[in-house]
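Limitations

Structures in this collection are predictions, not experimental determinations, and the ligand pose is part of the prediction. Treat each record accordingly. The example that follows, with adenosine-5'-diphosphate as the small molecule, is included so readers can see exactly what is and is not provided: the inputs are given verbatim, and the output is the predicted complex.
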Amino acid sequence: MNPLYSVAEIRAIEQRAAEALPAGTLMQRAGQATANAALDMLPFSTNGARVLVLAGPGNNGGDALEAAAHLTYSGAQVDVLHFPPAGEQSAERAAAQRRAESSDAIFNDIGGSALAGTEWNLIIDGLFGIGLARPVSGALRTLVDTVNTLGCPVLALDVPSGLDADTGAVVGPDGVAIRATHTITFIGDKPGLHTCDGRDHAGQVTVAALDLEPRQFPSVRLHLNEARFFARKLKTRRQNSHKGSYGNVAVVGGARGMAGAPILAARSALHAGAGRVFAVFADDAPSYDSGQPELMCRAAAGFDLDSSVLVLGPGLGTAPQSVELLKRAVASASALVADADALNLLAADAALQAAVAQRGAGCIITPHPLEAARLLGCAITAVQADRVAAARTLAARLRATVVLKGSGTVIAAPDGDAVINTTGNPALATAGTGDVLAGLCGSLLAQGWPQWEAALAAVWLHGMAADVLVTDGVGPIGLTAGELVPAIRAAINRLVQQHGR
Ligand SMILES: NC(=O)C1=CN([C@@H]2O[C@H](COP(=O)(O)OP(=O)(O)OC[C@H]3O[C@@H](n4cnc5c(N)ncnc54)[C@H](O)[C@@H]3O)[C@@H](O)[C@H]2O)[C@@H](O)CC1
Ligand SMILES: Nc1ncnc2c1ncn2[C@@H]1O[C@H](COP(=O)(O)OP(=O)(O)O)[C@@H](O)[C@H]1O
Ligand SMILES: [K+]
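Predicted complex:
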């Protein structure tokens, strides 16, 4: 189920587990798991492979020292750059240090130029884990900067040093963190490895549970997204069905000069399977979309907002008639996806926010971090400093399903459940991809999906489409939002083939 644990939860699990085990057992297991992971990353013949172990002052350093000793037995040449604690150290760390010192590991006060001048096969980052208490500074900051310039594989222990394990933010206003190619994280997975700066620093993440049993883990309300959370909603089409069986979507936006945004969202809704799709324009409507004549283009004035699932916001603008449209949409009985300018207008109107919270038909909102900041009345840095908390706060306040976009999109429900998405990549950092996502959410709602599963599936499919396109060389540079649309269609059909019933 890919649960994600906070630092406080990990500490509690660790403490209870440690009480039932001989002293030092967990650190020894962490060291052994690290050595195994390191061997997988080294050349087949480990003899003479150059490994640099960075061992910090806490128990993260203890894990690294345990690993250093193990790795010498494989024939690797292990150098240890050791930062002993200024004061007392834990008994298990002291034992790990003794083991490393009596192994063939070379404790070496290796300087910056020697560090940068050596061809390391692997660097193991055991500077700081979940005990990081302040920004990495001074000589350690220089060390992190140097490691980040080297092109060699880097295995981070528990968390890349400098990264906040709860939030994925690099600690400090101008902080640094190790950019690892791999992270082996202990006991349970951590949210900070998967959102905000986490994905750039953690690389490939594996979890070493240190032989703890499932009963030792509490149930949590934060998970990584996976198809099994929404697979039961994937339905094969009945033979005896028709366009009315797959619902109507109306994308409402497209103020003068911004007609492209609703068209992208509407095309996305159509290709994701909605039976009928309207593109509804705040100002004059074009007579039709020549690239997608299946869409029905309408002016908003007089359009029946109760007839379709509404995707409100793409290119909506903020003129007075857009505010009126938003009010009509919120007051309608239709399922609603609010995006882009709909969110900016909502942020400026407390009464409308209250109306959204009271909607019987619910709401999915899809803010990017700036839109979320406006809705929360805070700075964008505050949103990014704790994306999961920001999404949960918004979800509770608006009683909506919140999709907080960005690297490691967070989906949150009003009851506190939250999920971090794993698909997607920076190819999506281009105009219009958010419109495509909003249209996809609306399409799934129109096909009868509940809000929560629709949001989870839409974010997963949108990211998966981008991942497949990048694998095929269509991006990350130069992917266009329109190219996502057929890739999403392929991804959803593939999922239905796998899971549909
Ligand atoms: N205790 C155990 O038996 C186990 C510990 N584990 C490891 O232990 C780690 C947690 O250990 P700790 O609680 O000792 O924490 P860390 O090793 O992450 O760091 C804490 C130490 O670093 C210092 N420190 C924090 N931020 C600093 C900064 N910016 N600059 C300089 N010094 C700084 C603290 O004063 C303290 O000495 C986990 O991340 C994990 O790697 C796990 O392997 C599980 C088993
Ligand atoms: N670096 C990235 N990694 C993963 N996903 C990204 C990245 N950058 C953008 N995205 C995704 O692309 C979409 C962008 O949406 P948005 O910012 O609303 O753009 P627009 O308004 O131009 O449509 C979101 O789904 C977001 O999560
Ligand atoms: K670390």
